[in-house]
Amino acid sequence: AQSVTQLDSHVSVSEGTPVLLRCNYSSSYSPSLFWYVQHPNKGLQLLLKYTSAATLVKGINGFEAEFKKSETSFHLTKPSAHMSDAAEYFCVVSDRFSGTASKLTFGTGTRLQVTL
Amino acid sequence: AAGVIQSPRHLIKEKRETATLKCYPIPRHDTVYWYQQGPGQDPQFLISFYEKMQSDKGSIPDRFSAQQFSDYHSELNMSSLELGDSALYFCASSPGTSGLPFSYNEQFFGPGTRLTVL
Protein backbone atom coordinates (compact mmCIF):
# COMPACT_ATOMS: atom_id res chain seq x y z
CA ALA A 1 0.00 0.00 0.00
CA GLN A 2 1.17 3.49 -0.74
CA SER A 3 0.41 6.72 1.07
CA VAL A 4 1.73 10.20 1.64
CA THR A 5 1.47 12.38 4.70
CA GLN A 6 1.63 16.12 4.40
CA LEU A 7 2.70 17.34 7.77
CA ASP A 8 1.19 20.81 7.57
CA SER A 9 -2.35 21.58 6.47
CA HIS A 10 -1.58 25.30 6.29
CA VAL A 11 1.66 27.24 5.84
CA SER A 12 1.95 31.01 5.85
CA VAL A 13 5.08 32.87 4.66
CA SER A 14 5.96 36.42 3.79
CA GLU A 15 6.69 37.32 0.20
CA GLY A 16 10.38 36.91 -0.53
CA THR A 17 11.00 34.37 2.24
CA PRO A 18 11.70 30.65 1.75
CA VAL A 19 8.95 28.07 1.41
CA LEU A 20 9.07 24.58 2.90
CA LEU A 21 6.17 22.17 2.44
CA ARG A 22 6.76 18.81 4.10
CA CYS A 23 5.80 15.40 2.80
CA ASN A 24 6.57 11.88 3.99
CA TYR A 25 5.71 8.82 1.95
CA SER A 26 5.05 5.16 2.52
CA SER A 27 5.29 2.68 -0.31
CA SER A 28 5.81 -1.04 -0.66
CA TYR A 29 8.17 -0.50 -3.54
CA SER A 30 10.36 2.30 -4.78
CA PRO A 31 7.85 5.04 -5.51
CA SER A 32 7.40 7.73 -8.06
CA LEU A 33 6.64 10.98 -6.28
CA PHE A 34 5.05 14.16 -7.54
CA TRP A 35 4.06 17.58 -6.32
CA TYR A 36 0.91 19.10 -7.85
CA VAL A 37 -0.42 22.62 -7.30
CA GLN A 38 -4.06 23.66 -7.41
CA HIS A 39 -5.02 27.32 -7.56
CA PRO A 40 -8.53 28.26 -6.41
CA ASN A 41 -11.20 26.89 -8.74
CA LYS A 42 -8.53 25.57 -11.07
CA GLY A 43 -7.27 22.18 -12.14
CA LEU A 44 -4.15 20.37 -10.98
CA GLN A 45 -0.77 21.32 -12.40
CA LEU A 46 2.39 19.27 -12.04
CA LEU A 47 5.24 21.11 -10.33
CA LEU A 48 7.83 18.36 -10.42
CA LYS A 49 8.32 14.61 -10.27
CA TYR A 50 10.83 12.08 -8.93
CA THR A 51 11.19 8.78 -10.79
CA SER A 52 14.49 7.34 -9.50
CA ALA A 53 16.92 9.57 -11.35
CA ALA A 54 18.50 12.50 -9.52
CA THR A 55 17.34 12.82 -5.92
CA LEU A 56 17.18 16.62 -6.18
CA VAL A 57 14.41 17.47 -8.59
CA LYS A 58 13.86 20.91 -10.05
CA GLY A 59 10.42 21.94 -11.15
CA ILE A 60 8.59 24.91 -12.54
CA ASN A 61 8.35 28.36 -10.99
CA GLY A 62 11.53 27.92 -8.97
CA PHE A 63 10.32 24.97 -6.89
CA GLU A 64 12.46 21.97 -6.11
CA ALA A 65 12.21 18.85 -3.98
CA GLU A 66 14.70 16.37 -2.58
CA PHE A 67 13.99 12.65 -2.34
CA LYS A 68 15.48 11.25 0.87
CA LYS A 69 14.99 7.51 1.11
CA SER A 70 16.46 7.25 4.60
CA GLU A 71 13.89 9.73 5.86
CA THR A 72 11.10 8.66 3.47
CA SER A 73 10.63 12.32 2.70
CA PHE A 74 10.02 14.45 -0.37
CA HIS A 75 9.82 18.01 0.90
CA LEU A 76 9.04 20.87 -1.49
CA THR A 77 11.07 24.07 -1.26
CA LYS A 78 11.40 27.43 -2.94
CA PRO A 79 14.02 30.05 -2.01
CA SER A 80 11.74 33.06 -2.30
CA ALA A 81 7.94 33.04 -2.19
CA HIS A 82 5.86 35.10 -4.57
CA MET A 83 2.27 36.19 -4.09
CA SER A 84 1.27 34.04 -7.06
CA ASP A 85 2.46 30.92 -5.20
CA ALA A 86 -0.56 31.06 -2.91
CA ALA A 87 -2.43 27.84 -3.63
CA GLU A 88 -3.09 24.29 -2.45
CA TYR A 89 -0.16 21.91 -2.85
CA PHE A 90 -0.52 18.14 -3.02
CA CYS A 91 2.21 15.58 -2.50
CA VAL A 92 1.39 12.53 -4.58
CA VAL A 93 2.75 8.99 -4.81
CA SER A 94 2.45 6.41 -7.56
CA ASP A 95 3.49 2.85 -6.87
CA ARG A 96 6.07 2.11 -9.53
CA PHE A 97 5.33 -1.60 -9.71
CA SER A 98 1.57 -1.60 -9.44
CA GLY A 99 1.09 -2.46 -13.07
CA THR A 100 -0.66 -0.59 -15.79
CA ALA A 101 -2.19 2.82 -15.42
CA SER A 102 -0.79 3.44 -11.96
CA LYS A 103 -3.19 5.45 -9.90
CA LEU A 104 -2.07 8.48 -7.96
CA THR A 105 -2.54 8.64 -4.21
CA PHE A 106 -2.81 12.22 -2.97
CA GLY A 107 -1.87 13.68 0.36
CA THR A 108 -4.40 15.81 2.17
CA GLY A 109 -2.87 19.00 0.82
CA THR A 110 -1.09 22.03 2.24
CA ARG A 111 -2.58 25.45 1.75
CA LEU A 112 0.19 27.99 1.19
CA GLN A 113 -0.59 31.56 2.12
CA VAL A 114 1.80 34.33 1.04
CA THR A 115 1.57 37.67 2.80
CA LEU A 116 3.10 41.04 1.97
CA ALA B 1 -0.39 22.68 -26.64
CA ALA B 2 -3.56 20.63 -26.47
CA GLY B 3 -4.78 19.81 -23.00
CA VAL B 4 -7.29 17.44 -21.49
CA ILE B 5 -10.83 18.58 -22.20
CA GLN B 6 -13.70 17.89 -19.88
CA SER B 7 -17.35 18.61 -20.46
CA PRO B 8 -19.47 19.98 -19.12
CA ARG B 9 -17.52 22.27 -16.80
CA HIS B 10 -20.47 22.68 -14.48
CA LEU B 11 -23.48 20.43 -13.94
CA ILE B 12 -26.43 20.74 -11.61
CA LYS B 13 -28.64 17.72 -11.01
CA GLU B 14 -31.39 16.67 -8.64
CA LYS B 15 -31.14 13.66 -6.33
CA ARG B 16 -31.79 10.34 -8.04
CA GLU B 17 -31.04 11.79 -11.48
CA THR B 18 -28.27 10.58 -13.77
CA ALA B 19 -25.25 12.43 -15.09
CA THR B 20 -22.65 11.78 -17.76
CA LEU B 21 -19.25 13.41 -17.66
CA LYS B 22 -16.98 13.37 -20.67
CA CYS B 23 -13.22 13.46 -20.97
CA TYR B 24 -11.12 13.97 -24.08
CA PRO B 25 -7.46 13.08 -23.45
CA ILE B 26 -4.46 14.76 -24.96
CA PRO B 27 -3.86 13.41 -28.50
CA ARG B 28 -1.85 10.16 -28.51
CA HIS B 29 -2.53 9.57 -24.81
CA ASP B 30 -4.10 6.14 -24.43
CA THR B 31 -4.53 6.09 -20.65
CA VAL B 32 -7.31 7.90 -18.83
CA TYR B 33 -7.94 8.29 -15.11
CA TRP B 34 -10.92 9.64 -13.17
CA TYR B 35 -10.65 11.31 -9.76
CA GLN B 36 -13.24 12.76 -7.40
CA GLN B 37 -12.44 15.74 -5.17
CA GLY B 38 -15.01 16.53 -2.53
CA PRO B 39 -15.20 19.99 -0.93
CA GLY B 40 -11.98 20.63 0.98
CA GLN B 41 -10.75 17.12 0.23
CA ASP B 42 -7.87 15.66 -1.71
CA PRO B 43 -8.60 13.97 -5.03
CA GLN B 44 -9.56 10.32 -4.74
CA PHE B 45 -8.91 7.85 -7.54
CA LEU B 46 -12.04 6.32 -9.07
CA ILE B 47 -11.07 4.30 -12.12
CA SER B 48 -8.60 4.12 -15.00
CA PHE B 49 -8.48 2.81 -18.53
CA TYR B 50 -5.63 1.77 -20.77
CA GLU B 51 -6.24 1.03 -24.42
CA LYS B 52 -10.01 0.96 -23.85
CA MET B 53 -9.80 -1.64 -21.11
CA GLN B 54 -10.38 -0.97 -17.43
CA SER B 55 -6.98 -0.97 -15.78
CA ASP B 56 -7.50 -0.16 -12.13
CA LYS B 57 -10.43 0.56 -9.87
CA GLY B 58 -10.55 2.66 -6.76
CA SER B 59 -13.33 3.87 -4.53
CA ILE B 60 -15.93 4.09 -7.26
CA PRO B 61 -19.53 3.46 -6.16
CA ASP B 62 -21.50 0.73 -7.91
CA ARG B 63 -23.86 3.47 -9.11
CA PHE B 64 -21.05 4.80 -11.27
CA SER B 65 -19.72 3.24 -14.44
CA ALA B 66 -17.20 4.35 -16.98
CA GLN B 67 -15.75 3.34 -20.29
CA GLN B 68 -13.14 4.39 -22.79
CA PHE B 69 -14.09 4.53 -26.45
CA SER B 70 -12.18 3.75 -29.64
CA ASP B 71 -11.08 7.38 -29.98
CA TYR B 72 -9.76 7.16 -26.37
CA HIS B 73 -12.26 9.59 -24.94
CA SER B 74 -13.90 8.44 -21.75
CA GLU B 75 -17.27 8.90 -20.11
CA LEU B 76 -18.21 8.60 -16.46
CA ASN B 77 -21.85 7.67 -15.97
CA MET B 78 -23.41 8.38 -12.61
CA SER B 79 -26.87 7.15 -11.67
CA SER B 80 -29.16 7.59 -8.66
CA LEU B 81 -27.24 10.70 -7.72
CA GLU B 82 -26.89 11.49 -4.03
CA LEU B 83 -26.08 14.76 -2.27
CA GLY B 84 -22.68 13.33 -1.37
CA ASP B 85 -21.78 12.99 -5.03
CA SER B 86 -21.39 16.77 -5.23
CA ALA B 87 -17.73 17.22 -6.03
CA LEU B 88 -15.16 18.24 -8.59
CA TYR B 89 -14.49 15.37 -11.00
CA PHE B 90 -11.12 15.38 -12.68
CA CYS B 91 -10.02 13.43 -15.67
CA ALA B 92 -6.34 12.92 -16.36
CA SER B 93 -4.51 11.35 -19.26
CA SER B 94 -1.03 9.99 -19.78
CA PRO B 95 0.94 8.38 -22.58
CA GLY B 96 0.72 4.82 -21.36
CA THR B 97 2.76 3.41 -24.19
CA SER B 98 5.76 5.73 -23.97
CA GLY B 99 8.02 2.80 -23.17
CA LEU B 100 8.50 3.95 -19.61
CA PRO B 101 6.90 2.31 -16.58
CA PHE B 102 3.40 3.61 -16.25
CA SER B 103 4.03 5.26 -12.92
CA TYR B 104 6.79 7.39 -14.44
CA ASN B 105 4.32 9.09 -16.70
CA GLU B 106 2.97 12.42 -15.65
CA GLN B 107 -0.77 12.52 -15.51
CA PHE B 108 -2.10 15.64 -17.19
CA PHE B 109 -5.25 16.85 -15.53
CA GLY B 110 -8.24 18.49 -17.12
CA PRO B 111 -9.95 21.51 -15.57
CA GLY B 112 -12.57 19.33 -13.92
CA THR B 113 -16.35 19.12 -13.95
CA ARG B 114 -18.07 20.60 -10.92
CA LEU B 115 -21.14 18.50 -10.16
CA THR B 116 -23.72 19.86 -7.77
CA VAL B 117 -26.52 17.57 -6.62
CA LEU B 118 -29.51 19.35 -5.10
Helical percentage of chain B = under 10%
Whole-number mean pLDDT of chain B: 90
Count helical runs of chain B. Answer: 0
Unreliable residue runs of chain B: none
The greatest interface here is:
A-B, 28 and 30 residues
Outline:
Chain A is mostly beta strands and 116 residues long.
Word description of this protein:
The complex is a heterodimer of chains A (116) and B (118). In chain A, 0% of the residues lie in helices and 53% in strands. Chain A is built from no helices and twelve strands. Chain A is an all-beta fold and 116 residues long. In chain A, strand 8 (64-68) and strand 9 form a beta hairpin. Chain B has strands at 5-7, 10-13, 19-24, 31-37, 44-50, 53-57, 64-68, 74-78, 87-94, 108-109, 113-117. At the A-B interface, strand 5, strand 6, strand 10 and strand 11 of A face strand 4, strand 5, strand 9 and strand 10 of B.
